[in-house]
Here is the input.
Amino acid sequence: MSVESTRKSPDSEGASSVGAPDVHVKTAGESAPPAATVASASRNPLNSLMAGSAGRNLGLVIALVLLCIVGVATAGDRFASVDNIMTILRLAAVIGVVSIGMTFVISGGGIDLSVGAIVALASVWATTLATQTMAADFHWILMVFTALAVGAGCGLINGSLIAYGRIAPFIATLAMLAAARGLAEIIAQRRTQIVTNRDFIDFFQASVLGVPVLVIIFAIVAIIGWVLLNRTTFGRRTLAVGGNAEAARLAGIKVQRQTMYLYILLGLACGLAAVMLMARTTTGTSTHGGLYELDAIAAVVIGGTLLSGGRGTIVGTVFGVLIFTTLTNVFTLNNLGISTQAVAKGIIIIAAVLLQQRVAARRGSP
Amino acid sequence: MTTTSTPPQTIETTASHDGLLERIKSMQSVWILGVLVVIVAVFGALSPTTFLTAGNITNIAQNVSIWAVLAVGMTFVIITSGIDLSVGSVLVVSSVVAAKSMDAMGGQGWSTALIGLVLAVIVGLGWGILNGFLVAKAKVPPLIVTLGTLSVALGIAQIITGGLDIRAAPDVLQDNIGYGRLAGIPAITIIALIVVVVGGIVLHRTRFGRYTYAIGSNEVSARRVGINVDRKLIQIYALSGLLAGFAGILSLAQYGTTTIAGQSLTNLNVIAAVVIGGTSIFGGQGSMFGSMVGLFIPAVLQSGFVIIGVSPYWQTVAVGTILIAAVYVDQQRRAAATRGKGVSTA
Here is the structure.
């Protein structure tokens, strides 16, 4: 526990020292106004709405709407067609499932750099000749189970190392990144493995009432994630552990077990993402999931989940994923390459966090 | 908050009162050096005729030279409890700017090479200052800042080049720095060694170095004793950027081309090396020597695996395992030390 607490202390103290000079200035000049703003905030319905989760997500909605306006203005019907919107959603689905798992880990005060590598390993393991032969004899569901089991196994290793081995999440998952990616390369020998099971592909590439199955899976995962985080004790415990691990322990929460569950959950999400990716690309390779860790962390953080833990929002994460995917789509439709997207993405990440901090500082000062 | 921040301080003060032998024993770099020696001994025993040759050892040293330059900056950054994910991208963007300008100038002489060097270092320094400013003044977490600048720097490099690598290193640069040797030792290794030694002296023997530890150990205390923490942080990230820029020109000299797609895992490799070497990700502890030992373990493993005929893919698995083992052992030892000393000082 000493490790946990020493880790927390620089962050929180740094933050308080940052705020300190500002607070002094304010209290010297205007000691009454803060209290007044609190009172007015609770009375004015618009302000209270803004202070709630709707207000937090409003910025994201505006950003998404602006992106769509830019998309319609520059690409017209090519952007605003049903086909294109389904393309955006289908692309968002895979990284979206990973990001929802990542929301839990980050809310719980952790981080996972190994998600992309786990996706790669799960996709490779589930498409080996042995697995596919068995799946052909039995049912394609075996491939799904394999991917989920590999994902959960990696999550279990991550979680055990972090919760019981007390290794910093950054380091433990960095090691998992290297090891899982390496293992994927060993198994696949850097070859692309083709998914031969037609039923598997047909099932996941199908559409129900015009909505692709991948998008439906993403929606289901998002709903389950939202309920789990906001309406269950599991979710409350997650936020408690992320907010203050020591306080959570004193309150009787089994912090270590909870932390481990979070990484297993994310591992499962990675396994599911691997299945979806296998269906979309009809392949399993050790290069799948490249830089997913950065995309997922970026989506989660711009969605409004605190990187230091204790606050998480699934709705925000979904918006974060949609913003990045729509951005990619708009850029692609305008023939702007990955390079320009990378620049825009980087600036958006930093700007979003800067903005969040300004808002948090304003709200936190009284 | 005061109770949680005391343990690092007590370690710091008691450690300085111990004898030299105690201090050496408590350094993780010494343990890791032992691991490195064992690995070298195993490969040496398995294939004495190819592994323990001057040629192979020089080869390994040459392979880690560029990462060594990056690891110097990264050691400083991690000791402040920060992180710099952008080093690989900054290396790429610096080398691209340098290559593009040297290409435009057209010469093959030292003057062209010098301009390239200066430009690469300036670009790297600029990125570093930007990182430092966002971390220190804007208070954005280092992970996010450098994740963002990683993306931006790589994007800019791709925009400048259109995604195609530029082959434009002046001959003098390639002949003297890239392939050149001094008394049998590759010139690039000697340059890296100089950077490492200077970095080590600055970290361990100057006020700047002490401040780096102080900030990482306890930022608030550092502020209270009058250290200009913000300025120091900007300087440290600037140093990391500057070294990434310098590594950019070294990479041009070694490969004769920019390596736009080849640096995506450089940041994690360098971070892993620094952490294996005993620098704490929570800040306040670490050594330059340890980082260098940490750098050699993956390199030696890779070379050894190739020589004894094991798939080099196993190398990443082995590095991951060693990373975990190193950190785990270190934390157990540190926890034991904190418990023991906590009792004696209480």
Notes: Chain A is about 80% helix and 0% strand. The beta strands of chain A are 193-194, 207-208, 211-212, 283-284.
